[in-house]
Design brief:
Largest sheet: 22 strands, antiparallel, barrel
Number of domains: 1
CATH architecture: Beta Barrel
Structural class: mainly beta
Radius of gyration: 24 Å
CATH topology: Maltoporin, Chain A
CATH class: Mainly Beta
Shape: globular
Strand content: over 45%
């Protein structure tokens, strides 16, 4: 599909087409900032930020206080790293990568784990989309609205269920606040980039008075086919200048009301996400998706003796996406109706233990309709009960937890499967003085098979595969051990961890070679073996596996006094995944090294990041290797007025400045779809 065909989207009615808003929004945005530019000389000094609380922890702890390894993106760092998809936003954090399916879809990969093992949350509840089903399905979160992104690395099954056996990404926005911000406030961010003529705008407005808090937000982005740094195909063939059918257009928005008092908080939010993006592995196919979501929250502080708080969260979602073969020719339609609820009760110290007891319920009605509906309709139900307790002791703090779930999958015309996964954890933080901690964390977690792992049977055009599930597979059981260390004092900041995870009955997707000729089998749309077939035959299999790796990062303030501040950052990470009986697991992130500089002088701030990604030749049978590459990103901003929290800034950002040919090892389509080439973006940001 060419860009004009995509933008025309003749398959959709006129009311559903996305208007070209960027030129209209950029002009009033620039005009609004003009009065502030005159007061640049009165710019306020930098604001001292409070420690960031990890909301996904349930006990209101900072990252340093938690036993489980956590990374948090917020404030200026999040603004600098924000990209179009959640996967791209997080991919250069230690231990994090992205699935990468062009500009339209990218889901986080944590320590080699992806898909149904990574739970993506919006304000503590599931995104309630189908992004875990396939890498070409987008996450229904616009990073433009994120105020904080929290990544819990390793099994997080205790709080969020067996779908979080690889980790959790919790995206917090301001739609359900817990405090009133008096008066009128708001802001916007608008930008344009040269690679694919990429435009974006996001804005928000709120008003608070007494116990009342109102808020609304809107986001929009549009980009054409993106520029390449080399040939599209790894063998040197295919387009060399631009990648056809890689355009994207998305918009999102929401409105909320909250009643906030000292003893209670009640809130209701309604949001909408729409996206339309090309599938670059096909000539004209694209996805048109939309989701309407309703969220409610109730927080009751000190409701009775012995309880510090009770938090109730409810969410409902109506999600649908259609995979069009070409404009005007709809193909498979995915429909997902889902309801989810959580209640968390934090109790006061009892016998020295303070903790949280909770209940989580989930109901999901999933359907795929069409010739390529490779997963049958499935009604899934889930209920989970969990408890996490912590207690200080002479050397620091000890934490214990347990969870039990009941999961039911009831497919149409196929046998139903029920599972009862159980998870346990034990960990401790050892205080090694006022500035450093040693953390030891052990978990035993079980994961039920996802519906697609049980019931898939059919062609999946977006990934050019014919997937076959196995209704006979059972639960995974993972034993995870992690040792971490952190140090923070004056100019220095250090963090490091090593981990080992052994998984019994690990479920994975692998190419088939039925005749053992060393060549992956290909089939036609009916699953019949055909060397010239359009689809690669892949099966869900189960075998014992192990993962191990490390992450390390360090920061040093080269200059921290006077008008010029300069900070140095270093990081490295690596993960290995192997089957117990020999052989590598597919799509594992290669080793990476990174070096960064952050500088600030008066109203100017800048950063320079260099990352070396090694080649990945430890590959699974029939998988292709990826070459190493050098990634150079940079940013520069000028704060025209105000400070980091309120004011006006003009910024310049460069991505892949070396114009490297980048193929991510975690991508299903890396051999035909490289990442975008060099891009330069200019933007304007204002908040008040």
């Amino acid at each position: 599909m060419n860009a004009s065909a995509f933008r025309g989207a003749q398959a959709l009615p006129a009311a559903r087409r996305f208007p070209s808003l960027f030129p209209l929004l950029a002009l009033p945005a620039a005009a609004m900032s003009f009065p502030f530019a005159a007061s640049a000389d009165d710019a306020a000094p930098a604001v001292e930020l409070a420690p960031v609380v990890v909301q996904a922890s349930a006990l209101g702890r900072t990252a340093d206080e938690l036993v489980q390894p956590v990374a948090v993106l917020a404030d200026e760092e999040l603004q600098r790293k924000r990209r179009g998809t959640l996967g791209e936003t997080l991919e250069n954090e230690p231990g994090i990568a992205t699935t990468d399916f062009g500009r339209g879809a990218g889901r986080p990969v944590i320590r080699g784990q992806a898909g149904p093992r990574i739970e993506v949350l919006q304000n503590g509840l599931s995104t309630m989309d189908v992004s875990e089903l396939s890498p070409d399905h987008a996450v229904t979160i616009d990073p433009a609205h994120a105020e904080q992104v929290e990544i819990l690395k390793g099994p997080a099954t205790l709080l969020y269920g067996n779908g979080a056996s690889g980790g959790v990404v919790n995206v917090r926005d301001a739609r359900l606040p817990e405090e009133v911000r008096e008066g009128l406030h708001g802001g916007f961010d608008t930008s344009w980039g040269n690679n694919g003529d990429a435009g974006a705008f996001s804005g928000e407005a709120g008003y608070g008075s007494g116990p009342h808090q109102l808020r609304a937000d809107f986001g929009w982005r549009k980009a054409g086919d993106y520029d390449l740094a080399g040939p599209a195909n790894v063998d040197g063939s295919g387009p060399r200048r631009r990648l056809p059918n890689s355009d994207v257009e998305a918009r999102s928005g929401g409105a909320s009301y909250s009643w906030i008092e000292d003893s209670r908080t009640l809130g209701l939010a309604v949001s909408r996400f729409e996206s339309q993006y090309g599938l670059p592995v096909e000539e004209a196919a694209y996805i048109d998706m939309h989701q309407t979501r309703v969220d409610a929250q109730g927080i009751f502080r000190n409701p009775m003796a012995g309880l510090e708080s009770v938090k109730l969260r409810l969410g409902s979602s109506e999600y649908e996406h259609t995979e069009f073969e070409e404009p005007g020719v709809p193909g498979t339609r995915f429909d997902n109706r889902q309801y989810q609820g959580r209640v968390e009760a934090v109790h006061a110290p009892l016998a020295g233990f303070r903790g949280v007891v909770g209940l989580q319920l989930n109901w999901r009605d999933f359907q795929a309709i069409g010739d390529e509906a490779y997963v049958p309709p499935v009604l899934s139900r889930q209920a989970g009960l969990f408890v996490v307790e912590e207690r200080p002791w002479s050397l620091g703090k000890i934490e214990i937890g347990a969870r039990v779930d009941r999961n039911t999958n009831d497919p149409e015309n196929l046998p139903a499967r029920d599972f009862t996964p159980m998870s346990f954890s034990l960990g401790s933080v050892f205080n090694l003085g006022a500035y450093s901690h040693l953390k030891l964390y052990a978990t035993s977690s079980e994961r039920s098979p996802a519906p697609e792992e049980l019931y898939a049977e059919g062609p999946h055009a977006a990934t050019a595969t014919y997937e076959r599930g196995d209704n006979g597979i059972g639960k995974e059981r993972a034993q995870n051990l992690e040792l971490g260390y952190d140090y923070h004092r004056e100019r220095w900041s250090l963090q490091a961890s090593v981990y080992y995870n052994r998984v019994a009955n690990y479920i994975y997707l692998a190419e088939s070679d039925q005749d053992a000729d060393g060549v992956a089998d290909r089939v036609d749309e009916d699953g019949v073996l055909d060397p010239a077939g359009d689809f690669l035959l892949v099966d869900y299999r189960q075998a014992d596996a192990k993962f191990w790796g490390y992450e390390a990062s360090a920061g040093y303030a080269l200059l921290n006094q006077g008008p010029l501040h300069l900070d140095l950052r270093l990081f490295t990470d690596q993960v290995r995944g192997e089957l117990e009986d020999g052989g590598n697991l597919p799509r594992i992130t290669p080793q990476r090294w990174g070096l960064g500089l952050d500088g600030r002088w008066q109203q100017f701030a800048g950063s320079l990041d260099y990352i070396r990604v090694q080649s990945q030749d430890r590959i699974a049978s029939l998988e292709t290797r990826t070459s190493g590459y050098d990634l150079l990103n940079a940013s520069l901003s000028w704060r025209v007025q105000g400070d980091e929290r309120q004011g006006t800034s003009i910024y310049l950002r460069g991505t892949n400045l070396l114009d490297e040919e980048i193929r991510r090892a975690t991508s299903f389509i890396k051999d035909a779809v490289p990442a975008p080439g060099r891009g330069v973006y200019v933007g304007l940001r204002m908040s008040m």
